[in-house]
């Protein structure tokens, strides 16, 4: 009965990979914003599979043996995609999201062969010693929404993004309420220490992309 109750608290979203395998992502019926798979997370996950990063036919795999850190991972779909492509991934979020992350890691473990994935707690603005040295990639999907989290998020990026790190940030541009102000504050702060380059739509997955969902490559200023 307890198992049935646990199962009934989740609903599944399937994301098909280019090789035909399917990531099965459990989401929560009840909970905060981290409990569901947002469109920006799918756009970013599918971007990781584009041929510039991953093309088995020509032997290209930019993810093989790379160290990847996902911030604000939520369900973990972006980090899981990277792990299935061969990356050594740490997905991070608040304590409340750890159970969901672990559930989704277990659900999709069979799709991970050369890569790996671990879930850990990381609260933005706090100690990041456990996540250093800086990873090759930092991944973020839809992390720009709470005004009070903007300063801590940028502080964490300043500590985690090294001179060789590429941060790939995907976010849905929202025009209602406080969202435009929050986005503006984030980029004003970010650009004090980082350069941002937008990925054009023709470099993204042709099916899983949208004009109001942006992918940015963020690198530390030299």
Q: Strands, helices and their partners?
A:
Layout: H1 2-8, E1 10-16, E2 22-28, H2 39-47, E3 54-55, E4 60-61, E5 67-71, H3 77-84, E6 88-93, H4 98-108, E7 116-121, E8 137-141, H5 150-160, E9 166-172, H6 179-190, E10 194-198, E11 213-220
Parallel strand pairs: 5-6, 5-8, 6-7, 8-9
Antiparallel strand pairs: 1-2, 3-4, 9-11, 10-11
Q: Can you offer a commentary on this structure?
A:
There is one protein chain. This protein has 222 residues and is α/β, with parallel strands linked by helices. 26% of the residues lie in helices and 27% in strands. The protein is built from 6 helices and 11 strands. The chain has helices at residues 2-8, 39-47, 77-84, 98-108, 150-160, 179-190, and strands at 10-16, 22-28, 54-55, 60-61, 67-71, 88-93, 116-121, 137-141, 166-172, 194-198, 213-220. The strands form 3 sheets. The chain has a 7-stranded mixed beta sheet with strand order 7-6-5-8-9-11-10, with helices on one face. α4 links the parallel β6 and β7 (116-121). The chain is globular and about 40 Å long. It starts with a helix and ends with a strand.
Descriptive key words:
222 residues; alpha/beta; 7-stranded mixed beta sheet; two-stranded antiparallel sheet; 6 helices; 26% helix; globular
């Amino acid at each position: 009965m307890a198992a049935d109750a646990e199962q009934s608290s989740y609903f599944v979203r399937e994301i098909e990979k280019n090789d035909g395998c399917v990531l099965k992502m459990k989401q929560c019926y009840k909970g905060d914003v981290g409990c569901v798979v947002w469109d920006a997370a799918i756009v970013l996950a599918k971007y990781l599979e584009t041929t510039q990063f991953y093309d088995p036919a020509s032997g290209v795999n930019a993810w093989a043996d790379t160290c990847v850190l996902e911030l604000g991972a939520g369900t973990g779909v972006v980090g899981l995609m990277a792990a299935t492509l061969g990356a050594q991934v740490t997905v991070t979020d608040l304590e409340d999201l750890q159970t969901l992350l672990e559930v989704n890691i277990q659900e999709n473990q069979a799709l991970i062969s050369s890569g790996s994935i671990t879930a850990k707690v990381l609260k933005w603005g706090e100690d990041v010693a456990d996540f250093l040295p800086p990873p090759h990639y930092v991944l973020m999907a839809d992390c720009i929404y709470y005004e009070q989290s903007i300063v801590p998020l940028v502080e964490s990026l300043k500590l985690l993004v090294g001179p060789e790190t590429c941060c790939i940030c995907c976010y849905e541009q929202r025009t209602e309420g406080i969202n435009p102000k929050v986005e503006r504050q984030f980029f004003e702060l970010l650009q004090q220490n980082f350069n941002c380059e937008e990925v054009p739509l023709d470099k993204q997955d042709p099916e899983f992309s949208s004009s109001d969902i942006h992918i940015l490559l963020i690198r530390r200023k030299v």
